[in-house]
Amino acid sequence: MDDTAQRLKTLRQTIDGIDDQILSLLNQRAQAAGQIGHLKTGVLYRPEREAQILHRLKEANSGPLPGASVVFLFREIMSACLAYERPVSVACLGPQGSFSEAAVVRHFGHAAQRRHCDSLGDIFRIVEANETDFAVVPVENSTEGAVGIILDQMVDTPLQACGEVMLPIHHQLLVRDASLPLSEITQVYSHSQSLGQCHHWLDAHLPQARRIPVTSNSEAARLVGNSSEAWAAIAGDLAAEPYGLYAVARHIEDQVDNTTRFLVFGHLVAQPSGKDKTSLVVGVENRPGAIHALLTPLAEEGVSMSRLESRPARTHLWSYVFYIDLEGHQSEERVARVLQEIKKNSIFVKVLGSYPVTVSI
Residues spanned by CATH 3.40.190.10 within the chain? Predict the structure, then answer.
């Protein structure tokens, strides 16, 4: 055996030994998680605890693995350990292969059980009825803005926001026949937001194709997969295989940093993690200075605002409600003081929830 072959053999034996250690440690971790499960009742998932673990490990990582890989691997480890006791069940927009499902996997790991819903309206109702533990819903896109139907339902649901997911969105043009020329495509199906996120590309490459909005990108993939027509769907990679489709153009989104923000809703109230956000919706009187009075307490207490979104109220014509994201947890003294002052200057205030800031991959 030459020197190179001997070195390879030695390195492979070293890797085998390390793998055995990892396997043993993974099972020890699962056993410890199971012991915690015997001490607790209900859902074992704690968003603040997972965020603290991921932040700590990402900061402690000395390489050569990048921090993103460390976060991904440990999220999957936590997902598998949690499933050892009882898998988390999550409602999301379907059918299979949607970006919402990708957001579930990104946040909860592959061991989470996914329930695909036909409409965004069904998702909250399923969790409210305790048919699943959590819901993952899109709230805004960096290109197309807020998802109005979700903002409206956030006002009405008794569920609490307990997590967020930042999902980079990469759109693929999917067809049944990989040899189909772009010039022969007659119709393009996708969610209206995705059609908007790709409209420049569509103008340049598929000017002849009719654009048809549907309830979700995965529904678009299902329709194209079940048709013999020269149709195409705009969807993510996750939607290709289940419906027998091929990507004939990749990353067709107009903005390279296109990102959708999702929120996780459930019955639990997330405890402080050390790096949190608080979301609320506020109604104010239609009078001069109302917004100034609303925002002044933030400046006085030094609380940063990361989002301010207005939307017509459904109760009175030309009245508006405001969706606000604050940095910090509602249990923190300065955030609590801000919330108290906002309530004094508002018609109503609903705290949607406090939750850990997403740990980026």
Answer: 87-169+259-265, 172-250
Q: How far apart are CA 325 and CA 335, in angstroms?
A: 11
For residue 1, is pLDDT > 70? Answer: no
Phi-psi region of 329 (alpha: psi -120 to 50; beta: other; left: phi over 0): beta
Residue type, 245: L
pLDDT of residue 46 exceeding 70: yes
Q: Kindly report the number of other CB atoms within 10 A of residue 178's CB atom.
A: 10
- Model pLDDT for residues 256-303, shown as the tens digit of each residue: 888 999 999 999 999 999 999 999 999 887 778 878 888 899 999 999
Contacts of 252 (CB under 8 A, 6+ apart): 171, 172, 173, 198, 201, 202, 205, 234
First to last CA, the chain: 43
Q: Kindly indicate whether the domain formed by 172-250 is annotated with CATH number 1.10.10.10.
A: no
Please give the CATH architecture assigned to the domain spanning 87-169+259-265: 3-Layer(aba) Sandwich (3.40)
DSSP H or E segment with residue 280: strand 276-283
CATH 3.30.230.10 fits domain 270-356: no
Domain with CATH 1.20.59.10 in the chain: 3-84
Q: What CATH homologous superfamily does 3-84 map to?
A: Chorismate mutase (1.20.59.10)
Contact 198, 253 (CB under 8 A): yes
Task: Tell me the per-residue pLDDT of 95-147, one tens digit each, with 9 for 90 and over.
Answer: 888 889 999 999 999 999 999 998 888 999 999 999 999 999 999 988 778 88
What pTM was estimated for this model as a whole?
A: 0.85
On whether the CB atoms of residues 92 and 123 are closer than 8 A, the answer is yes
The length of the chain, given as a count of residues: 361
